[in-house]
């Protein structure tokens, strides 16, 4: 029952192969059904061995179990060994299971399938798990169900991690000035050899900087979640980042998807990860790349260490290199994210809960600004439906009540400019904060101290923090790590 061999495989492939083999054992021809395995059964007395059986008889026996075919490895059915395109076999030109037949199946499988993470109408391509692997929709659902059952038994959820600007930041060497390169080489010499945070990847023509607290975060998250990676960087970049993030292979176990696994619109989709949507949490700095799964996303504050990428996101001068510092590992984004993950995990497995992680996240998010009544001043353009504006939506998701007009119930005025509303707020002693306050509450999942985000004319430009989603997605794709 061994699956057809392919030239390359990842550590994550072993886990999936185990699930596929379990299905075979439970199938009508499997050992659990009380009959011999397809290839390993010993011939009865007086019977010829399977290798001696005529091709037609062998074909008839295989067709007891297929179709439907559960999936293909390199174009070969993982259950019966038939190639995906059998026109020549049906004509009797090639014996089923022959070396030539298998080789043609491998040739068809490599490069032809797996070019798109969405797969085709009948099969889902899982190239990131094992090169040339694709499974039927039915098999994909079975695998999702089995993954869910195993996760519940282990009291673990699934965590999908973005790379760029979430866990780390990479930039091309050509985007680093000579002066900045000197600073970076100085950092390399001073950093710990045992736990480096900065990497000079000459063979990739790239610098990579880990986000502070990344190692502690991954180790703690591993105890509660099965970790996956999904990056918009290409496969070569994804594998290189896997090497430096997880040199032992104990964190991700090969579960690393890249841009080649994205759907036809070059967006990220949970379907390719073979997890159940109601058990998967996503950490990503760009919400818009998950159009079908926004309810699963914990949006991270974008980590910008190198100046060049800060410019791409319209945040020139705000990179940590330019500011001469770095994020605090103890109070930074990863530390905040882990607290949310820990709370949502506990809520999911609490007796009597709804057992849908999206509901858990929504409940936790709705408590952040509970009891607050927000009035916006020069944040939402007049020609825009206020209830659809990102600022309004974010405030509502965090549990705040939003109003259009002055009223006694108002507790906060979120301002992008001075108006009669802000003048009224000053007279009434209301909190008058910049839009950064709303974002800070969203990123930290807690009501932040308003005194640190008081509005002044110098902070008026912060209304631009509510970026155009389409532009943010394009910037994220452009800034994603790519192999040179």
Model description:
There is one protein chain. Helices cover 35% and strands 13% of the residues. The longest helix is centred in the N-terminal third of the chain and has 18 residues, at 137-154. By secondary structure, the chain is an alpha/beta fold. The chain has a 5-stranded parallel β-sheet with strand order 10-9-5-11-12. The chain has helices at residues 11-26, 55-62, 87-90, 99-112, 137-154, 178-190, 214-222, 235-245, 307-312, 320-323, 333-349, 357-366, 390-397, 420-428, 435-444, 469-479; strands spanning 71-73, 76-77, 123-125, 133-136, 157-161, 168-172, 198-201, 206-210, 225-230, 256-257, 280-284, 297-299, 373-377, 401-403, 412-415, 431-434.
Provide a brief overview of the structure.
This protein is of the alpha/beta class and 484 residues long.
Taking strands numbered 1, 2, ... along the chain, how are they ordered across the largest sheet?
A: 10-9-5-11-12
Provide the structure class. alpha/beta
| Major sheet details | 5 strands, parallel
Strand elements, count = 16
Global outline: globular
> What share of the residues does DSSP label as strand, in percent?
5-15%
* Contiguous runs where pLDDT drops below 50 for at least 5 residues: 1-14, 23-42, 87-120, 460-464
Number of helices: 16
Question: Roughly what percent helix?
Answer: 25-40%
- Gap between N and C termini, in Å? 41 Å
Rg, Cα atoms, Å:
27 Å
Which whole number gives the mean pLDDT? 81
Blueprint (SSEs and pairs):
Layout: H1 11-26, H2 55-62, E1 71-73, E2 76-77, H3 87-90, H4 99-112, E3 123-125, E4 133-136, H5 137-154, E5 157-161, E6 168-172, H6 178-190, E7 198-201, E8 206-210, H7 214-222, E9 225-230, H8 235-245, E10 256-257, E11 280-284, E12 297-299, H9 307-312, H10 320-323, H11 333-349, H12 357-366, E13 373-377, H13 390-397, E14 401-403, E15 412-415, H14 420-428, E16 431-434, H15 435-444, H16 469-479
Helix pairs in contact: 7-11, 11-12
